[in-house]
Fold each of these.
Amino acid sequence: MKFEAERQQSPESAAIRDLKLPRHFDFLTFRLFDFLTLTMKNIDSISHVTGRSLYVDDIPVRTGTLYGAVFASPVAHGIVKGLDVSKAEKMEGVAAVFTAADIPGENQIGGVIPDEVLFADGKVEFNGQPMALVVARDELTARKAVAAIRADIEALEPVTDAREACEKGMLLVPPSTFQTGDVGSAWDQCAHIFEGRSESGGQEHLYIEMQGSYAYLMENGHVKIRSSTQGPTHVQKAAANVLGVPMHQVEVDVTRLGGGFGGKEDQATAYACMAALAAAKLEKPVKIILHRMDDMRMTGKRHPYSADFTIGLSEDFKILAYKATFYQNGGAAADLSPAILDRSLFHSTNTYYIPNSKVTAYSCKTNLPPNTAFRGFGGPQGMFIIESAIAKAAHELNVPARIIQQKNFMKEGDYFQYGQVAKNVNIGKCFQLADKEYHMVAMAREVDHFNKYNQWKKKGMALMPVCFGISFTNKSMNQARALVHVYQDGSVGISTGAIEMGQGVNTKILQVAAHTLSINPERVKIETTNTTRVSNTSPTAASSGADLNGKATEMACKQLSSRLRRTAAILLNTKLTNVSLRNEWVYVNGVKSELSWTELVKKAHLDRVCLTEQGHYATPMVDFDKKISKGHPFAYHVYGLAIIVAEVDCLRGNYHFDKVLMVHDFGNSMSPDIDMGQVEGALAQGLGWMTMEEVAYDAEGKLLSNNLSTYKIPDIYSAPREVKCIPLPTKGPKAAILRSKAVGEPPLMYGIGGYFALQNAIKAFNPDYVPDFDAPMTMEKMLLRLYQ
Ligand code: MTE
Ligand code: HPA
Ligand code: MOS
């Protein structure tokens, strides 16, 4: 009653109803009764801005808590002759120093392949590799003790370059090849063939919250770990393995992350295991939070890729053949590199239909920290290479790249290189809408005009289309669970395997529950992610957190709803099929009854109806045969495109982005504000990767860009002056939760257009410039290219 009354009468809700949705969402049609959830802000926004949101370092500490600090290898490659921790151990306030020798279980935390030790043992393979953990009464003491540890290491020659590693046969896994048609014979049909090389650099995640964990013992040696991880089950499994106990002895609990971006899919594990080890050994609570510079030095980043490509086109610019070899710089252990390598292959032809292609990828073992997941998961790297090939062809043929891009867009019924038939292909629609709204030819003409009348300033424009597959490419990971409690007062508590890391997945799950049960969102609470409530979770990754966990929540809520309707039918003496739940009221044959949600819940409980349900969702249809590299790996694809205009100061080499104009396929967005935030954030991150973010190691494998003065990420000053995103009006696929498509990663790849927009500006200034593909295009590199 109250909810309904509020919606109709309170001035506040009237104000909400009158609130204009952002202009770009005007033409989306929304289900009206969802209006409250649709205009809902991220449920964390108030606690974020008031500083009340809880992160690992904010958890009130227990009496007797000790603090850990890590001693890491100062060299990238070597044989460990000795490790002297005696001085550290004797320091006042130090409780213990742990090394590989102290591990009761296995010194092994590898997720995909067991090739990663927790503490170096016998050899070191990267600068920053953990060798020992000091635990002390406070952080400062722990860090001082770390400085007193001495390692005697016989240095070996480090390898930091992927191609060099490949030549030496140092591969993390056997190479992988995707192919279709027959590239060998296709070259004969090509009117134009171009070759080139393309490089893209690493990228530091720079999540605001550093890697961290807080572990303590419960009863009977049971360890509870509060970790900043995207993958609680992986942490649970690895910690159990390190401690030599069954998984049921380890409980992992996650409230939220201060950003993950893939950097905590696998790499939160080490610090969680260390905290758990120390807590178990000392029977004291132990907390480890990395300092920024240690986090930057010790953890892996986006994989740099180096590639050779050959592209063949017909007279009328159809891409007939594409051949490429990718060298992925994997770092010293596999981590997620094999899965990332695969996704580079899945996206190696981006949104183009290419009848003949063959792409081979090598995951190369180098003496760098193990590189890892980063928003896009290898997709961006694969796409940068095909876009490089197209830019090369466009330059040689003296046509705008967008002509070649557009000619080769996938169409309905085309098949991807990996065999999946393309359905609901939206790239053409995105292009048409972008052209209609943004007038691409006129924009290009404006850029030309500007360049004609400006000697020292040049503009460049580029188009970046994107097609990104949604699902984990490892079939078994495409499952999730939810546990839903309806309490006696009608409020609802939900646990799932999803991790909130700023992307708004908790808000979306809350919306799903409120929508499915047709209740006020304020009645719903999302609980922490905890392995004892929801077990065997996939990491929150692959942009599919909301889809997988949302679907599981929806299933559980549907069950509860039907159970409650059954109770209502009995109470109201009618047939089950006549009963519906709407806006917190029971309706019979579409007519509102006297029975409210809260009353119904109360009655159901008294009638001993179970008010708890769990949902298990496993994405249907997805399958992929790794042996032949063919199958149907993705539930659906997300499409979109961006037009980017850059302006370069040709005296200084400075640049900025004038405009980024996008059309993005959200499906039927259930959270427009959140989704728009994801687009903006991902775009900024993509542009950063392509322009100013330069991960630099010296020849000895030591990180040079190891703090925020040497590693620059985009801030408000480097944001494009104009950012616009029009949602493609579509119904959205059933495989997406409430037909609202996954949005976390795809827009990152719009940033790739930034590189080519800058390149086109250089071309406008320096006629001798031969386009090269060596991202990021830092301002230093820009200056060199303007005058080369
Ligand atoms: N957005 C914020 N604010 N913080 C993050 O850490 N991670 C990204 C993306 N958006 C991230 C983010 C990555 S890498 C992925 S895979 C998805 O969110 C994961 O969440 P989802 O599956 O719920 O979209
Ligand atoms: N995407 C993101 N994370 C993953 C994947 C994937 O496809 N596979 C395993 N971890
Ligand atoms: Mo995202 S790279 O799949 O965590």
Amino acid sequence: MSLTNFPGSANSSPLDPSITKVTIPALAEMKRQGKPISALTAYDYATARLVDEAGIDLVLVGDSLAMVVMGHDNTLAVTVDEMLHHTRAVRRAVRRALVVADMPFGSYHGTVGGGVANAVRFVKEAGAEAVKIEGPRVALVQALTEAEIPVIGHLGLTPQSVNRMGGYRVQAKTLEAVQQIKADAKALEGAGAGVLVLEGIPREVAAEITAELTIPTIGIGAGPDCDGQILVFHDMMNLSFAPKAKFARRYADAGALFRTAIEHYREDVEHKAFPSDEESYHLPSALKKEMQAERTAVEPFKQLRKA
Ligand code: KIV
């Protein structure tokens, strides 16, 4: 049997062989070496390029796009086709980071076979390198792993369970709930999950889960002891038009930056200050002269006709 010989090293980016592609085993190695994993959401080509070029390890096409991009009240409405559309755009932009697609609500909540079929679409039709699913769906994680689809689990505050939880509340706050989430985390790891997202749980619980698992944990509102951190792009840039959550540190105010620029542009248009002559295209001077000469020749006849 021969090994397929891809250009560059075995884990080089298929789009750019000079770049070492982040893979699920590479993330596991980062945990072993105690190297923190950086992750961010992205939903389109431009932001995904910025995120990837900044050296972020994992790009999640999160179903949070239902809220921050599409303006829904929660994540439940976004469809598989809509998620595929955004995943394709992100995939075209990313060279190095691991591209993970979030499976939307309803796409894996029926049969295991149905969940696998939808996950295959994310890999085949959009180029996702892993899928993320919420909740302790051990049988599905096992089936996806057997189908060669890397899975990211997601426990704690799982936004697709908003109706069952009765709102977005910090989870794992009783002894029973702590024991349950720890057991769920172990079960997902045992079923083959490659990474586990922990959202909205006490720091102490996330620390214990992180210490007990060999797979990396990535936290959001789960304290600093996880193996990595993830934020929603629009939250960190103040573009989400929502009250700031306790954990969502703002790294820039792109909302204010964009608003000022847009207002400035509107004023320039209203005052005819945009575009300037330098921002306009011009005829070649020879043609300009020719047209001028033609106008001059025609002018006396026009005057005659008027008289
Ligand atoms: O959809 C999303 O953005 C997520 C992250 C918050 C982990 O699931």
